[in-house]
Amino acid sequence: MTTIDIRSGSLVVALTRGEKVAGLLRDAAFPLTSVRSVEVVDDGLAAVRGLRAPGLGLPGRRMIGTWRGREGRTLVSVRRGRPALRVTLEGERYRRLLLDVDDATATAAALAAA
Predict the structure, then answer these.
(1) Number of H helices, E strands in the chain
(2) Scanning 16, 47, 48, 96, which has the fewest C-beta atoms within 10 Å of its C-beta?
(3) Organism's domain of life (predicted)?
(4) Residue 113 vs residues 16, 37, 38: alpha-carbon distances, Å
(5) What's the burial of 1, exposed, middle or buried (CB within 10 Å: 0-12/13-18/19+)?
(6) Can you tell me the distance from the alpha carbon of 106 to that of 114, in angstroms, rounded to the nearest whole number?
(7) Is the peptide bond before 54 cis (omega within 30 degrees of 0)?
(8) Residue 59 CB partners (closer than 8 Å, separation 6+)
(9) What mean pLDDT is predicted for residues 28-57?
(10) What is the DSSP secondary structure assignment for residue 103, as one 8-state letter?
(11) Closest-CA residue to 31 (of 91, 75, 86, 84)
């Protein structure tokens, strides 16, 4: 499961080995100054927009990878039936992060406070 940490002024996204392989991704870090908004979405799968390139998409079950759309790239790691954290960034490689984390509400509050 994806974990998010706030360390020394950065938002650090740590992916599991399986997520890295399936989504052709790696761990990422973003400065907190680039975070524009943070919200919790009830259904992470329904919130995914755009075309997968590259990554893994199992319709209705799991999505991991990079999704590209009009608004830019989105780093995605979500699964069925779980809320997800949507983080909007500015000036970074990814425009959005859509991640299934253990406690999305608490993580969103911690990010908003930072």
Answers:
(1) 3, 9
(2) 16
(3) Bacteria
(4) 26, 12, 11
(5) middle
(6) 12
(7) yes
(8) none
(9) 94
(10) T
(11) 91
Q: What percent of the chain has pLDDT over 70?
A: 100
pLDDT-derived band at 1 (thresholds 50, 70, 90) equals: confident
Closest CA to 100 of 74, 81, 72: 81
Q: In the predicted model, what is the mean pLDDT of the chain?
A: 93
In this structure, the number of other CB atoms found within 10 A of the CB of residue 7 comes to: 9
Q: Which of 55, 102, 103, 60 minimizes the C-alpha distance to 75?
A: 55
Q: How many CB atoms lie under 10 A from the CB of residue 83?
A: 18
* 3-state secondary structure (DSSP) of residue 94: coil
Q: Is the pTM of this model over 0.90?
A: yes
Confidence of residue 45 (pLDDT cuts 50, 70, 90): very high
Q: 85-109 pLDDT, tens per residue? A: 999 999 999 999 999 998 889 999 9
97 close to 74: Cβ distance less than 8 angstroms: yes
